[in-house]
Amino acid sequence: MTGRAGWRLAAALALALVLGGCAATADRPVSGEREEAAEVHAELGIGYLREGEFEQAERNLRRALDYDPGDALANIGMAAVLERKGQLDRAEEHYRRALRRDEGNPFAQTNLGALLCSREEFDEAQALFARAIDNPDYDRRDIAYMNSGVCHADAGDVEQAERQLRRALELNPQYPRALLEMARLTYQDGRPMQTRAFLQRLDSQGIESAETLLLCYQAETALGNSRAANACAERLSRQHPDSDEMTELRRLEREG
């Protein structure tokens, strides 16, 4: 899985992991014994997610939901597993279950908003991001701002997209996803010098991918720096010869 879908899954998993150990605030309509069993299996499932053991994660999350179908942590974890499997309808259902139990849960709000944005349900997605951002106890507002920016970009609102992405970077200046999104946005908006600057900030963290190398080639070509453009093209060819970005590079070189 590559591109924004892969980043969206990574964010979903990250938020599920951050949520580990947090209790839902709403009353649980189950006995204390079943509640405790659900919490234990939910935490085990999140632990397996952290290790990339998805089958074990799903097994434990299902057991948690057998004990308590409304458990917020188990539902968020299960939604992350289902997103990985491409079962977005079922993932959405689990995010909504989490919110029925804990309506102010910013992790579920942010994850569900990202999923809805991928379906171009922009209004509800932005409403969810806004609720997460307004939560004074949410310490990952950078993720909500970033997802809001991506959603605005997908809706064609470049100005709002940039505003939200810059807010994400104010909170977390080294946030790789926000830096990449700003590199994309500025290149598409005809600002290759800024694209270069955002790519350099990623490079300073040792972050390089087929996408950043293609963006580097495009930005440096637009700036008339053929030497730097060729260097990025060479690294892309050597390190990612079978990627979609390599196919695009060949097309650009033929047309150039």
Report what the structure shows.
This protein is mainly alpha-helical. The protein has three domains: 1-103, Tetratricopeptide repeat domain (Serine Threonine Protein Phosphatase 5, Tetratricopeptide repeat, Alpha Horseshoe); 120-172; 173-256, Serine Threonine Protein Phosphatase 5, Tetratricopeptide repeat (Alpha Horseshoe), CATH 1.25.40.10. It is 76% helix and 0% strand. The chain has 14 helices and no strands. Helix 8 (141-154) runs parallel beside helix 10 and helix 10 packs antiparallel against helix 11. The longest helix is centred in the N-terminal third of the chain and has 20 residues, at 32-51. It is elongated. The two termini are 29 Å apart. Residues 6-10 and 16-28 have low confidence and may be disordered.
The tally of structural domains comes to 3
Unreliable segments (pLDDT under 50, ≥5 consecutive)?
6-10, 16-28
The CATH architecture of the largest domain can be named as Alpha Horseshoe
Number of strands: 0
Please give the radius of gyration in angstroms: 20 Å
Taken as a percent bin, the fraction of beta residues is: under 5%
End-to-end CA span: 29 Å
> What would the average pLDDT be, to the nearest integer?
89
- Largest sheet composition: none
Inertia-based shape: elongated
CATH class of the largest domain: Mainly Alpha
Name of the CATH homologous superfamily of the largest domain: Tetratricopeptide repeat domain
DSSP helix fraction: over 70%
Structural classification: mainly alpha
CATH fold topology of the largest domain: Serine Threonine Protein Phosphatase 5, Tetratricopeptide repeat
Number of helices, where a helix is a run of at least 4 consecutive DSSP H or I residues? 14
